[in-house]
Amino acid sequence: MSKWNKTLPLLLLLLAVLPATSSTSAFFSRQLPVKQPDLKARQVFSDSYQQLRRGELIDISTTLKKLKNYPLAPYLQQQLFRNQLAYGVIDKQELSNFLAAHPNTAFQQKLQAEWLEELGKTKDWSSFLIETNSNPNPLNSRLSCYQLTAEAKVIGISLQWMDKATDYWRSNQPLPNNCQQLTHQLDQLGLLSTKDYQQAALTLMHKNQPIAARLLQRKLSKADQKWLALWLEARSNPASKLRALTTRRVGFNADSAIKNEVLTHLLKQLANRQPTQTKQIAKQLYKRQQISQKALWQVKEHLAIRTARYSNHSKTLQAFAAIPAEQLSPEGHQAYARTLLRQANWPRLVSAFNAFPQQLLAKNEWRYWQAHALNQTNQAQAAKALLKPLAKKRNYYGFLAAQQLGLQPQMNALDTPLDTNLVNQLRYNPGIARAEELFFTNHPEEARQEWHYTLSKAPVEDQIQAAWLANQWGRYHLSVSAAHNAGLYDAVELRFPLAHLDTLRPLAEQANLDLPLVLALIRKESIFNAQARSRVGALGLMQVMPATGKQVAQRLKLAIQPKADLLKPEYNLPIGVDYLAGLMKRYNNNPVLAAAAYNAGPGKANAWLTSLGKEVDPLWVERITYAETRDYVKSLLAFREVYAWRLAQQETLRQAKINSPNTPKG
Questions:
Q1: CB 78 within 8 A of CB 106
Q2: Which family does the entry's similarity section mention (predicted)?
Q3: Phi, psi of 18 (to 5 degrees)
């Protein structure tokens, strides 16, 4: 049995008998009165909005009268204006009046941006300035350029405009494509120096924008033109150009700082394909005094970090041995330490930690492994001094530290009381009311925008109660984000919701699955957002891939349309639970292996089991080669402990309520 299987069930057993604390003492009283929806108004809105979303130009005046007090009536107007903009039949004054009537709203900013874009394209600079002055909103980079152009055309060029325009030009490289005229204007006024163009060219090359950099070439000094030409030419074949420099077949006369920057960038580019050749060329360039000692160390570190990702431990350690510890970047320090950790080279790891910057040593991960390395080198007291404060934290490494010290894990749950008066006030906040109706009329993206916009500047007290409101709606991902954005990281009750228990409890029992593990997986995968879609196509609460969902559904004899039905909890949960149960069975109920397989696929989990060994412990987790999967497993194990604690608290409170002498009989 692995160390995980030995310790986690015991930990769960301990959690089950913990006494109730004040953080959950009001669990059963956290109920909100239900706000009665206007179902007729919702239907009227939905019918008209559907037509408008198809791009139709319809008369909505009668509909607006019917929806006089309905929160989403402005959405019909803004969509009609968007359609009119698309067809070029807009009434400027009507649109401006509408925008002025709905300040500080998410839909106003979106509609105004589209309107300003149209005014900029048609060069209606007077209307552009009237609109931005009447309804000031933050402008994106493209609209900011239009704003500067409009000011120059209508108001004229002042000293203040010059300062603002040059600051914009320097800070927004690469400029949007509507800004060519501004560059020409600034150039004619003599406001852009060769130093400005040099810095812009460097910025563009670092951002992998060679075409934009080439357009600036004729504005550079002759010396700068040469290094940019060399850099541009060398991008397609850095080895050829760098070798030519080492043999002096090509000259490179430039400021030493520029030379180091260009050549270091090219060497790092070459290192990704030809590391051995890069190492040789870098040494030769240093001998020829083409790059500095510091630049050589930077290239060597880049090569060492690359080796840490793709090669064996001995090669990696050799690569890092050639670099003084004080020359390592934070990334280099961590790559070196991770190599020693995976090798279980405890003495050298202790030495590596001695050279760590303080900000890295403060990280939970490195504090835990520093303590472990000290323990392994007979420095138990020093290790204990590191573990004791870490064991007080509610995270993966805090739980490991507590386990090592024989202590109970600390949840540090913050009491987040429900204020029904404040919640009811929030319900009638126009932005929150719009978000609620958008959710329940099946427009989740617009709802999310309204929600986040409305709460973006709200006080902490409002965000807490908004989290409770979202919790009541069943929009748990918004509840979690509201608590997080308010900085309430210890609001455990809000950040780790006990959702879908009526469905999940029997499913977990039937599948012989640990319920806290199932809840932890949903929290990690989707934050309980039933409409969640991943970039690779995984869907719903348990982020099931359509192909997997179809296969499991056939086994469960569920007739589904995967891409639609996996977004429904009634299908997603039984399918996801069955798939997870299959992985747990496959891996002898080992949550680490099951989690790794759920994230990266059984093929990779099997490969790690072969290469890393069958003793699955915390060091095994650190040796997982995929960073995403490594972090996924850690999160899942930590979330599992939090949910075990939450369920234990709930059961304790339930029993207390049953045994209370004031409980009504019958």
A1: no
A2: Belongs to the transglycosylase Slt family.
A3: -70, 145
Measuring CA to CA, which residue among 650, 644, 658, 348 is closest to residue 508?
644
Burial 418-441 (b: 16+ CB within 10 A, else e): beeebbeebbebebbbbbbbbbeb
Which parts of the chain sit beneath pLDDT 50?
Answer: 1-29, 664-666
Q: How distant, in Å, are the alpha carbons of 91, 438, 531, 542 from that of 443?
A: 27, 5, 11, 21
Q: 416: helix, coil or strand?
A: coil
Q: How many CA atoms lie within 13 A of 405 on its CB side?
A: 23
- Residue 427: name the closest of 440, 414, 415 by CA: 440
Give residue 12's Cα distance to chain centre. Answer: 30
Write down the residue that tokens 């060497």 correspond to. 267
Residue 212 shares a structural domain with residue 198 = no
Structure tokens at 570: 């009634």
| pLDDT confidence of residue 3 | 43
The span from the CA of 624 to the CA of 605, in Å, is: 9
Runs of H (alpha helix) within 456-500: 460-473, 476-485, 492-495
DSSP 24: G
Three-state SS annotation for 137-179:
CCCCHHHHHHHHHHHHHHCCCCHHHHHHHHHHHHHCCCCCHHH
Does the N-terminal peptide bond of residue 174 adopt cis geometry, omega within 30 degrees of 0? Answer: yes
408 found inside a domain: no
27: helix, coil or strand?
helix
Our count of domains for the chain comes to 4
pLDDT at 663: 54
Q: Which two tokens stand for residue 640?
A: 């599992």
Of 439, 465, 495, which closes a domain? 495
Return the pLDDT at 656.
84
Task: Assess if residue 21 is contained within a domain.
Answer: no
592 found inside a domain: yes
pLDDT (0 to 100) of residue 658: 85
CA distances from 611 to 587, 625, 633 (A): 16, 10, 18
Output the six-digit token pair for 609. 């089991």
Are residues 616 and 505 both part of a single domain?
Answer: yes
Q: How many CB atoms lie within 10 A of CB 359?
A: 8
Q: Is residue 388 part of a domain?
A: no
Which sign does the torsion angle of CA 174, 176, 180, 181 carry? Answer: negative
**What pLDDT, in 10s, does the model give residues 533-578?**
999 999 999 999 999 999 999 999 999 999 999 999 999 999 999 9
Residue 261's CATH number: 1.25.20.10
CA distance 95 to 112: 9
> Which two three-digit tokens encode residue 593?
């292996």
Torsion of CA 235, 237, 238, 239, to 10 degrees: 180
- CA proximity to 239, closest of 277, 201, 203, 204: 277
Are residues 265 and 189 both part of a single domain?
Answer: no
The two three-digit tokens of residue 10, written as one number = 């015991």
CATH of the domain at 436: 1.10.1240.20
Q: DSSP for 237-302, please give it.
A: -HHHHHHHHHTTSS-----HHHHHHHHHHHHHHHHTT-HHHHHHHHHHHHHTTSS-HHHHHHHHHH
Same domain for 490 and 437:
yes
Cβ–Cβ < 8 Å for 466, 487: no
Q: What domain range includes position 455?
A: 420-495
